[in-house]
Design brief:
By secondary structure, the chain is of the alpha+beta class. It has one domain (2-10, 43-135): Tetrahydropterin Synthase, Chain A (2-Layer Sandwich). The chain is built from four helices and five strands, in the order βαβαβααββ. It has helices at 24-31, 64-79, 84-87, 100-112, and strands at 2-15, 40-53, 82-83, 120-126, 132-135. It has a five-stranded mixed beta sheet with strand order 3-1-2-4-5. Bound molecules: nickel (II) ion (NI). Nickel (II) ion binds next to strand 2.
Length: 138
């Protein structure tokens, strides 16, 4: 039997959306208030979706305690109460702009690296209750 399990998680973090070879006015035109040079915060919510075959012996798809621990170690400890531009490796030195899209992708990569490859993995990231992204795209 194929099924999906979900785990919700949450972190608060600061960011600034910015393209370094544009001036502040041009950045503000593209990114609006998210380009504030002094940064600002979001309450990020996420849903981690794991899909695969139920183990006939245990009746489990995945032990959700293990998934919870992966999220804690590889996402929450990395992003929670951090300045994403300055403190999260993938975004440091303007390597990547910390949009919801890119943060979602980085979370997927970090969890994909530790999750058993027999599972499919999808990340949904809410930057606000009404604005959210999902990777991989469905
Ligand atoms: Ni923002």
């Amino acid at each position: 039997m194929r099924i999906s399990a979900f785990r919700k998680a949450h972190f608060n973090a600061a960011h600034r959306l910015h393209i370094s070879n544009l001036n502040d006015e041009e950045n503000a035109r593209i990114f609006g208030s998210c380009s504030n040079p002094l940064y600002h915060g979001h309450n990020y919510d996420m849903e981690v979706k794991v899909t695969g075959e139920v183990d006939p012996r245990t009746g489990y798809l995945i032990d959700l305690k293990i998934l919870k621990d992966y999220i804690k170690e590889h996402v929450e400890n990395v992003f929670d109460h951090k300045n994403i531009n300055l403190e999260v490796e993938e975004f440091m030195d303007e390597k990547m702009n910390p949009t919801a899209e890119n943060i979602c992708y980085v979370i997927w990569k970090r969890l994909r690296a530790v999750l058993d490859e027999k599972f499919e993995l999808t990340i949904r990231l809410y930057e606000t209750p009404r604005n959210y992204v999902e990777y991989p795209a469905s």
